[in-house]
Design a protein that fits this description.
It is built from no helices and ten strands. The chain is mainly beta and 182 residues long. It has a five-stranded antiparallel sheet, with no helix packed on it. A five-stranded antiparallel sheet has the order 3-2-4-5-7, with no helix packed on it. β2 and β3 form a beta hairpin.
Length: 182
């Protein structure tokens, strides 16, 4: 019989060596009471320098007309000789609010601190200019009847337009619980 084995790392990258001066920290969390959530992982296309577009996350669709849980508008200037351009994305919530966060476990939406919109942008003179940006946020929409969370990757140039990839969880019951049941 042929012998088999398993490696936990690529030996050419060097193996892990524990360092008491630089410990690895694991964040553990006890699973809470899950809720029935609507989940999507979807790429939404956007016109640049065009009208506000609405994202109906209960239906998983992008539209020019309300209702929407999120709304976004992508603005972009022409490329300069370095192939860079100024761009901005404004993400807002009609009849609600949005709150950027760096929380690791986004399982309960906050009660307050929401703003009408957030702006993510880059200018050609930014030292670390990129056409792509990431953010994550909570939102409450539909007059506070829907809470959700999303991780967004913004592509200020996607084919001839722009796109936002959203990995989102929405609780349509009005509860702030955003922990999936499974």
């Amino acid at each position: 019989s042929a012998s088999s084995g398993y490696e936990y790392a690529n030996p050419f990258d060097g193996l892990f060596h524990p360092d008491p001066m630089n410990p690895v920290v694991f964040h553990l969390r006890k699973k809470g009471e899950g809720a029935d959530l609507i989940h999507g992982d979807q790429l939404f296309g956007f016109r640049t320098n065009g009208p506000l577009q609405y994202l109906d996350l209960l239906q998983g669709k992008n539209t020019l007309n309300p209702p929407g849980d999120l709304a976004a508008q992508v603005m972009r200037t022409p490329r300069n000789p370095d192939a860079k351009f100024n761009w901005s994305v404004t993400i807002s919530v009609p009849d609600g609010g949005i709150l950027e966060t760096n929380e690791e476990f986004m399982f309960e939406a906050p009660t307050d601190g929401y703003q009408p919109s957030i702006v993510i942008q880059a200018t050609t003179n930014d030292l670390h200019w990129s056409a792509v940006a990431k953010t994550q946020f909570y939102f409450k929409s539909r007059n506070g009847n829907v809470y959700g969370r999303a991780k967004a990757t913004i592509y200020s140039q996607y084919q001839k337009a722009a796109a936002i990839e959203l990995n989102y969880y929405v609780n349509p019951s009005g509860s702030r619980n955003l922990e999936p049941r499974n």
